[in-house]
Design brief:
The protein is mainly α. It contains six helices and two strands; from the N terminus they run H-E-E-H-H-H-H-H. A two-stranded antiparallel sheet has the order 1-2. The protein starts with a helix and ends with a helix.
């Protein structure tokens, strides 16, 4: 899959040489990706998960540092006390019957934003988030290029996304 991504990235850079200056390597996993023009040349995490993981890790670290401080511990204790008081004051709610959830895969927002930025740069115009989501939905619904009988493709699709 990575080889397909790199082949596609090379073809895009071949047709749009001005995007070459936006080519950036993820500081964590090392994969190449196209950054926003304002971030060209900066040390960035890729939109495939490294940036989100780094953001969460740093949030946990700063939060732990804050609550280890005596002032932070005092504030956290007051906050927890207010939460307990609210729970006591609120009437008990009956649990709602659970509805069956759809087996729908959601595309991470950072990935959608990345695809939006790259497609906008390739087309030379601003592409809306809705257009990107429609394009990705259409792409996901296409049949694979694997050599299979038509009935086998349909059965595999039904197993992946039941009606």
């Amino acid at each position: 899959m990575v080889l397909q991504y790199y082949a596609l990235l090379r073809s895009v850079l071949g047709t749009r040489p001005k995007l070459r200056r936006c080519l950036t390597r993820c500081w964590r996993c090392g994969i190449f990706f196209i950054a926003a023009a304002c971030n060209a040349g900066r040390k960035l995490g890729c939109p495939y998960g490294c940036a989100d993981e780094h953001r969460q890790r740093e949030w946990r670290r700063t939060s732990a540092e804050y609550y280890e401080d005596p002032d932070g511990k005092r504030r956290k204790s007051k906050h927890n006390q207010r939460q307990r008081d609210r729970r006591k004051a609120a009437p008990e709610k009956l649990p709602e019957p659970q509805r069956p959830t759809e087996a729908k895969e959601e595309i991470p927002t950072t990935l959608v934003g990345y695809v939006q930025r790259v497609v906008s740069a390739i087309k030379g115009r601003r592409v809306s988030r809705e257009e990107i989501l429609e394009m990705l939905a259409k792409e996901k619904s296409q049949h694979s290029l694997v050599r299979q009988r038509r009935i086998d493709q349909i059965i595999r699709t039904l197993h992946e996304r039941p009606p």
